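Field: COMPLEX_INPUT
Field: COMPONENT_COUNT = two
Field: RESIDUE_TOTAL = 748
Field: MODE = joint
Values follow.
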Amino acid sequence: MVKLKIDNHEVEVPAGTSILEAARKVQIDIPTLCKHPDVDPTAGCGICIVKVNGRILRSCCTPVGEGMEVITSDPEIVNVRRTVLELILSNHPNECLTCIRSGHCELQDLANTFGISNSRLPSLNKKYPLDDSTKSIVLDSSKCVVCGRCVEVCQNQQNVWALSYLNRGLATRITAAGGINLADSPCIKCGQCSAHCPTGAIVEYDETQKVWDMLNDPDIYTIVQIAPAVRVAIGEEFGYEFGENLTGKTYAALRRLGFNRIFDTNFGADLTIIEEASEFVERFKNNPESLPMMTSCCPAWVDLLEKYHHDMIPHFSTCKSPQSMVGALAKTYYAEKMAIDPAKIRVISIMPCTAKKWEIVRSEDMSSSGFQDVDVSLTTRELARMIKQAGISFRDLEAEDADSPLGEYSGAGTIFGTTGGVMTAALRTAYYYITGEELKDINFTEIEGLEGIKEAEIDIKGTKVRIAVAHGIGNVEEVLNRVREAKANGEEMPYHFIEVMACRGGCVAGGGQPRVMMPGQPKPRGITDDIRRKRAKGLLNEDLQAKNRLSHKNEAVKTLYDEYLGKAGSHKAHELLHTHYVPRSLYKK
Amino acid sequence: MSEGSVASQVAAKWRKKRGSLIMALHEIQDIKGYIPWDDAMEIAVGMNIPLARIYEVLTFYNFFKLEAPGKAVISVCTGTACYLKGNDKVLEEFKKELGIGEGESTADRMFHLQCVRCVGCCGLAPVCVVNGKTYGRVTPNDVRGILDEWRNKLADDKE
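Field: COMPLEX_OUTPUT
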C-alpha cells in the first residue's frame, strides 16, 4: 500500500494505482476526456492534469508514490485545462444543436463545466465523409477528439481490429484502415466503440424515422418486440437508477407510440432454448464429435465467426437469435392465426445492440417468412428518443402487459440479456430433456459475474458436462484455441457447450444501450463494470422472482408447438427458426 | 494471395521475427517504389498482422508511399542554406507547374515532388535533385527547363 496526500487528504491505495483513481477515494472527480475505466490510459487529452510536488503531470497515467503531495485543482490547473479544452474545441465542429449526442456528450459537458462560451482560436476542423456503410454504426471523424478509447476497445478488448489510427499529429484520424469503409473491414458492428466514444463521433445508425413512417401508415400492421436487456437500461433515459427493471412501463410506452401488437423477445428466448437445448441433446447423444456446441444468438459473434473462425462453423448452433425467431413467427404463425396479410405486417425490434441491425439482413435465412422477418431493429437509445419525441411521460405510465401469443416468457428467457444467462437457461432445459427430471438447483452462480472466461461442470446423471462462458469478444479466441489444441492432439474436448456474447457483461452492456449522464455518476460517464452489474442484477432478480423459471414450461411456447411447429427440430421449425453460416472474407476491396 | 509474389516472399521471410513489420514494408517499397494495397493485404495475411496495424505504421512514417510515385522524383532541398537562398520559391514554382503538392505525384505518374533536408552540397545552394542528377543555384525561372528536360528524357526512354 502507498500513502499519499491528495489536496491535503490522506489516501492509502495499492501500489500502481493512478492518481486519477486514488483521487476518487477522497471524493475528487478529476475531469478527463480520454481515460475510461475499461481501457488503459492513452494519455490523449491532457485534461486530467494535476500538480505533483509542483510539477504538472497527467493523473490518468501517473501512478501514486509514497509521500506524494498532489494538488488536483488550483487557478493555474483550471486555466491549463481550459486552454486544452479550447484547443480540442478548435478541432471540433460547432454542431451541438444537430448532434445526436447532444445532452449526453462528455466534451459538451466539460465545455459547460469550464464555462467555455466563446473560442479565442480559429477552427481547424476538417470535414470528413461520414462512414455509415455498416448501417449499424455511423463514424463521423470530424467529431472525433482522437481520445483513442474506441481503438483500444476495438483492437485490444474486442480483438477485432476494424478501427485504427491513421496519419500522425494534427492529421491523425480514427477510421477503418487502407482506404476501405467499415462495412468492408473486419468490423463486427458490436458498437462497443460507440458505447465508449465520449462525443458524437461514433453513434448508432438512426432509423427512428422509418418506424414513425410505419406507425403513421394506416395500412401497416406494426408489431414490436423488446429484448431482455432493454428493460433494465431504458429507465436511465428517464432518470431511474441503473438496472431498474421497467418491463411494464416499456410496454405501456410502446402502446402509446401506436404499435398494434407488443410482443417480447423473451418469448423468442424461451423458444430459442427449446430449439437449442434439443439441438444440444441431439449432438450430445448422437453426434459427440460436433461438440462443443456454441451459442449463436449474438450477431456480432456470428459475424466474427464467419470472418475469423471458419474452422468453428460446424460447432455453431444453427438456431436463429430470439429476435429473428419472433420476427419469423410474427409473419407466419401470428399472421395466419389472426388472418392478417403478412405483406402488411412490419416487425420492429428494440435491441440493446447495434449489430442486430445487421443481423436482420445477414442472409436470405432472415427472410424465412417470405418477407424480411424483422423490418427495423432499433437500439434502446433510439426507442428512448421516440418516447421523448412523442412527449410520453414515461415515469407516470402505469405498467401494462404484453400481448399474446408471443409475449409470455419465463425467468430463463429474461436472463438471456446477461453473460451466463443463455447457458443457464439452456442447461435448465437440457437437463430436463436428458433426464426427464428438473434440476434441483437451477442457479449457476459460478457463471454469473464479469470474469472474462467462466467455466463450470454439471453432473447430468453421471455424465460431467463441461461448459464455458466467454464475453467481451476478445476473450473468445482463448476458448477456441483450447478447443483447437484438444482437436489437434486428439484429446477429449475441454468443453461440451460454450456461450459467447460479444460485449463485456453481455447484452446489458450492448453497443446500443443508453449513455446517460446521471447526477453524481463519476466521470467518464459511459458504461462501467458497476453499471454492468446493476443492469445484470435487474434481470437476475426478475428470474429469481419469476413464477416460472424454465423455458420448457412456457405455456405460450408449448401452444406454439402444438398448434404450429410440431416438435422441436421439426421441418417447420428448421425452416423458420434455424439458419446456416458461411465463411466470409475479412476484408473486401 | 499469389504464390511467389514479392509480398508473399517478403512475408514468409519475416513472419517468424517479432517486430519486423517495418523491415518487411521497407523491402516491398525498395522493390516497388511504394506499398500497393494488395501487397499490404498479403503482408497482413502472410505475417498474421491486422491490416489496421499495417496502415497505422504506413501512415505514421512519412517515408512510406501508398501510391506509385512519378518516374522522375524531384527532391527540392529545404535545408537551411537552400531555404535561405530561396528554394521555397523554387518549390512553389514546381507545385504551380505540376499542379501537385509536396509528397504528391502527377496524375500521369511522370513526376513526384518531395522535399529533402540537405543533400550535402550547400555550396551550390539552392539545390534540387532529380533522379540523382543535381541542379545547383536554381531559380524559379529554371523550373520549366528542368521539367522539359525530364519529359524529353522519359519520352526517349520509352522509345
